[in-house]
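Q&A log
Question type: sequence-to-structure
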Amino acid sequence: MSIYEQLRERFDLPEEPPEGEPVVIPVDQHVAFATALKEAGFTLYVTVCAAHFPSVQPKAKKGEEPPPMTTEAWEVATVLRSVGTGSETFAWRVRVERPVVPTLYSLFAGADWQEREQYDLVGVVFENHPDMRRLMMPEDWDGHPLRKDYAIDTRVAPWR
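Response status: OK
Response body:
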């Protein structure tokens, strides 16, 4: 039985894994999902990556009402790897309407700085992380430079 089939029995996953995309998990199942993967041998925390999707007003087709405005959202994708012969990776993502996701630090020490980096650059807060502070930008930096609504022409003084 594949890891996907095992997880499908415990979590509400589609019959077939989405082709070319990580499976989407509700945020309230994020830690339980990671725990299940760790118990199945996925013990190496590979990466976490956050993305910001601002609310936008889609353009209307000529003569039609404009579609409703989209809701601002964040997606956080996580990848774990099993170690040893037959090593595999497993990726999943959570989509949230406010930038708060539970930390995986208590399960994987490797989540520490990677979650801090996503907080620093995209603004996602990893709830219950023991040291949620900036990692790359100065503490007094205003905003999160990889958010889509961060002004690209923001003037800043050089710093080292």
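Response note: Strands lie at 23-24, 44-53, 73-81, 89-96, 100-102, 125-127.
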